Amino acid sequence: MFFDTHAHLDDERFDSDRQALIEGLPERGISYVVNVGADMDSSRRSVELAEQYPFIYAAVGVHPHTAEEIEDSDLDVLLEMAQHPKVVAIGEIGLDYYYDNSPRDIQRKRFIDQLELSIKAALPVVIHSRDAYKDTMDILTEYKSRLKGCVLHCYSGSWEMAETYLKMGFFISLGGPVTFKNAARPVQVAQNIDLSRLLLETDCPYLAPHPFRGQRNDPGLISLTAEKIARLRGMETEKLAEITLKNACKFFKV
Ligand code: NI
Questions:
Q1: Distance 71 CA to ligand 1 centre (A)
Q2: Angstrom distance (rounded) from CA 133 to CA 127
Q3: What is the mean pLDDT of residues 218-245?
Q4: What is the per-residue pLDDT for 53?
Q5: 36 Cα–ligand 1 center, Å
Q6: Least buried of 129, 174, 177, 190, by fewest C-beta within 10 Å?
Q7: How far is CA 189 from CA 18, 43, 149, 179, in A?
Q8: pLDDT recorded at residue 21
Q9: Residue 184: which H helix or E strand, with range?
């Protein structure tokens, strides 16, 4: 049984079949899902999904892409949402210098604001970082002792940097990219990570694992990612599923 620690089931790509898809997840081996917000609306919808389905939990937060859209008052709204018993993390938050959809100084400000918010809410954080490795590391290094837990979601950095994050006590989450034919860095991470710090995710509807790359992803496809990592580690997929599910339950206090 699997724990998908990062899904966006509120995405419009699930509008046509959301209910049927979600109701079918337990029989496809999915025990838990954390649905992750990316802006105010999707954070609200994540909480709604968590209220509707016992095995779905929510993370609330504003993605660096939309950092520019939020106002100070939204932080109060997020803090209020964070009090909901099924909200288990603040995320996804971080920095994205690949797309640069929001100015970098605003991305950094809202990232730090939401790290502060996670401390107030006593919740762990889910980090998105793309092409912003140094700034992400600098900011998280400053906050590490005050955070209630931290996971680098869909980790795409080097193994060397992963080692630094692991030493800081953080978790690393791997998804579909570890199955891609040209995968290098995530494979190296999968081969070397202490399994007690590994989480699995889909980031659906994005990043579908091989052989579904480019198609709509969903939590049920997480088994393909788990199979690949289990193969890299020379272990049974069931054992990896069991370990990573336990890790996620501990991390999110589910
Ligand atoms: Ni995501």
A1: 21
A2: 12
A3: 98
A4: 98
A5: 7
A6: 177
A7: 33, 30, 20, 12
A8: 98
A9: none
Which two tokens mark 192? 């070397």
Q: For residue 247, how far is its CA from the centre of ligand 1 (angstroms)?
A: 19
Give mean pLDDT, residues 103-125: 97
Residue 8 Cα to ligand 1 middle (Å): 7
Residue closest to 45 by CA, chosen among 3, 9, 73: 9
Q: What is the mean pLDDT of residues 26-55?
A: 98
207 contacts 175 by C-beta, under 8 angstroms: yes
Condensed to tens digits (0 to 9), the pLDDT of residues 73-83 reads 999 999 999 99
Cα end-to-end span (Å), the chain: 15
Task: Evaluate the omega torsion of the peptide bond into residue 219 and state whether it is cis, within 30 degrees of 0.
Answer: no
Distance from residue 6's CA to the centre of ligand 1 (Å): 6
Distant-in-sequence, close-in-space partners of 239: CB < 8 Å, separation ≥ 6: 230
What is the residue whose two structure tokens read 């990573």? 244
Alpha helices by DSSP H, 53-92: 72-81
233 C-alpha vs ligand 1 centroid, how far in Å? 26
Contact in structure between 58 and 30 (CB atoms under 8 Å): no
pLDDT tens-place string over residues 124-148? 999 999 999 999 999 999 999 999 9
Q: What share of the chain is helix, strand, coil (3-state, %, to 5)?
A: 50, 20, 35
Q: Which amino acid is at 123?
A: L
Task: Give distance in angstroms: CA of 38 to centre of ligand 1.
Answer: 7
Residue 15 makes CB contacts below 8 A (sequence gap 6+) with none
Residue 67 CA, ligand 1 centroid: distance in Å: 15
Q: For 179-198, what is each residue's pLDDT tens digit?
A: 999 999 999 999 999 999 99
> 157 CA distance to ligand 1 centroid (A)?
16
As a whole number of angstroms, the distance between CA 56 and CA 51 comes to 8
Give me 6's structure tokens: 């990062």
